[in-house]
Amino acid sequence: MTTTPSARAASQYTTTTGNLTARMALHSYGTNPQDWFAWLGERLPLTGDVLEVGGGTGELWRRVGPRGRLTLTDFSPAMCARLREVPGARVLRCDATYLPIRAGAVDAVIANSMLYHLDDPDAALREFARVLRPGGRLAVAVNGRDHLAELNTLGPVIGRPDLAVRFHDPNDVTAEATPARVAAHFDDVTIERYPDELVVPAAEPILAYIASMIGPLTAAQESAARDAIQARIDAEGSFRVRKHTVLISAARGFR
């Protein structure tokens, strides 16, 4: 069944933070000694009026600490409840393509792994440009088309070849395509890749990740997936998963 990115995001996140939490847990097996949030925090514009769109559980701010005058948004009531735990943050529940913020009001916009949830990511980029002051900075994190490719191979194993489709939405918000989209609205676009690979020693974190994508596995699906994962671990010592995540930075022009 075909569904839109926004409809899938609504089904995944409106009433629960569990799916996102399961996915973040898998990334704790990364080989980079500096985890994603610490790496990202060193590169973000974090002074003045800072806006994060699609803030999720607010994990970024638990790791790097609130900075500047922080506004956090998400469409999900469940996520907004978690965001309200971030000290000093203003939280708004809204759509990323219609931000209840006046034009030119913020110094920085952060969109961490969220653009691919939108049916019209270009509308969101236009909105980010609208709320930024001239000279303000944008930071967008997206994944490449080969991101987590080894997990895609488990789809046919459990009779769900659509598993791979769920990792890459038809709007093609990817490391390959997004820089040009950002450049259509912003200046001084730069791209930096986060160097990392997952080395997972057991099946359970991978099974939890898959279930977060497609729902609870049947006993037969879990058994088949576990056997395939364990075979890889037995042969190679771990289940290794390639990551391809980039941070795209840009500036709001003065035009």
Task: Provide structural commentary.
The chain has helices at 5-13, 18-26, 36-41, 59-64, 77-83, 121-131, 149-152, 154-157, 163-167, 178-183, 204-214, 219-236; strands at 49-53, 69-74, 90-93, 106-112, 132-143, 187-194, 197-200, 239-242, 245-251. Helix 2 (18-26) packs antiparallel against helix 11. The protein has a 7-stranded mixed sheet. The protein contains 12 helices and 9 strands. It is an alpha/beta fold. The model has no long low-confidence stretch (mean pLDDT 93).
Question: How would the blueprint of this fold be written?
Answer:
Blueprint: H1 5-13, H2 18-26, H3 36-41, E1 49-53, H4 59-64, E2 69-74, H5 77-83, E3 90-93, E4 106-112, H6 121-131, E5 132-143, H7 149-152, H8 154-157, H9 163-167, H10 178-183, E6 187-194, E7 197-200, H11 204-214, H12 219-236, E8 239-242, E9 245-251
Parallel strand pairs: 1-2, 1-4, 2-3, 4-5
Antiparallel strand pairs: 5-9, 6-9, 7-8
Helix pairs in contact: 2-11
The rounded distance between the terminal residues' Cα atoms is 44 Å
Shape: globular
The averaged pLDDT comes out at: 93
- Specify the structural class: alpha/beta
Task: Output the radius of gyration.
Answer: 18 Å
The major sheet is characterized as: 7 strands, mixed
Question: What strand line-up does the widest sheet have?
Answer: 3-2-1-4-5-9-6
Helix-strand topology string: HHHEHEHEEHEHHHHEEHHEE
Q: Strand content of the residues, in percent?
A: 15-25%
Helical content, roughly?
25-40%
Number of strands: 9
Q: Give the low-confidence spans.
A: none
Please report the number of helical segments. Answer: 12
